[in-house]
């Protein structure tokens, strides 16, 4: 998606170590108008998928998932990362690993909000190793619901997550696919190349 | 706001111990159309406040804050709860306490996204003891920005947070103000009364 790629080139940056930092418009400060345009694109791409629920994981997936659900006219559920005392009754849980934070965590969704008959679209801001999406996919399976696809804002296509999910048969659509982020020690900056 | 009060009475419940559980439409599963109506109401209430930034805290404030920012046509920033390795450079931090999780945590906003000249509207899902809003207010102060008010979806008016913030001179607007939630041991349920 050209609008997004241009924005990443303009306002994103590659941090030392190869992290793509998009804190100024996607996952710390957010640009609501941009996110709304991305949501419209997910609505267009998955128009015929019969989506009746959008599922994401806190925190940075929530904004784009909510706008997408608003356009589908369906509820949005966000999986929680740890046991909170106000989670009631039975919950589905799956383990995931965050490379950003360097630790394992548990993803949890109350059973009441993910059910057989649900046609679930997974939405997230990033796809790299696919840990979060795999855990969400496991939750959908445990619930007996159907996953109709995954929409991610940015895929790091040089990592394995997307390929492995697609090999499982999941329809994965990324609005921007980063082919490489070469880090230059001399320039102390990275060059982002899209697929 | 009548629409919200009716929804709380219909789909909310009081858990043992006096927690108001609105997981089915506000902070686990979310109803995007309801949240959009709440955002429109915040836009109406704060129409003349010159808002040019919306600030909230992850996770459950993000959805309503983003929709509100979309209507104001301004960025939305969410404060993060712990140091993540992809937070760059200088950050403003303030301490807060979560009664839900029973522990202290650090709220953090990168300096780049909160600046002198910003007219900041705080948005959150709940106001009880006011811990999160007080920490956000501190961050706005540290940045040399101006806080033009706080919009919360549900205020527990029987707790002190709202009163203390208003005594400080902050404009606090709640879309639903809960006066009491009487727990009946016999019925194993609570009765919600609005102000």
Description:
The structure is a homodimer of 195-residue chains. Chain A is α/β, with parallel strands linked by helices and 195 residues long. Helix content of chain A is 28%, strand content 37%. Chain A has 5 helices and 11 strands. In chain A, the strands form 3 sheets. A 6-stranded mixed beta sheet of chain A has the order 5-4-8-9-10-11, sandwiched between helices. In chain A, helix 2 crosses helix 3 (62-72). The N and C termini of chain A lie close together (11 Å). The model of chain A has no long low-confidence stretch (mean pLDDT 93). Chain A binds chain B through residues 15, 19, 21, 23-24, 28-33, 35-36, 58-59, 62-63, 66-67, 69-70, 73-78, 80, 84-88, 100-102, 109-110, 112-113, and chain B through 15, 19, 21, 23-24, 28-33, 35-36, 58-59, 62-63, 66-67, 69-70, 73-78, 80, 84-88, 100-102, 109-110, 112-113.
